[in-house]
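Narrative summary of target 7.
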Amino acid sequence: MPADSTTPGTPRKKAAVAGPVAKRVRKAPAAAPSALDRLQSVIVKSLEDDKAEAVVALDLAGKATFCDRMVIATGLADRQISAMATHLQEKLREAGLRRVLVEGSGGSDWVLIDAGDIIVHLFKPEARAVYALEKMWGADLDEAV
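Modeled conformation, tokenized:
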């Protein structure tokens, strides 16, 4: 029964007769991915496109002062690792990163790419097992403390 000016009673009674008013619920806007998330997604996609194996991303915020995230991947041959590093350097420049530093790309077991807040390690399988960066920087580190 709609409440109108012809319904007898006070405004409060008229509101009670009309029933509850549906409240509009505003949806919170979806959180936009941060610049760091976008950069990490560019890195992971580039590595996956180059057939990198066992790609792992570690969040180091609060654990390390030199970076906020670390991405570790494995390549099977020197040539594959060198190509992954070159392609990744190109993709990072396209994404707007001006200064990308690459160490060890001249045919070694380990290539390090410094993308500012994200450090990328490209290993051969044997070198990755020896250095075991996942164990050094992984979640197990927090539990041991």
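The mean pLDDT is 80.
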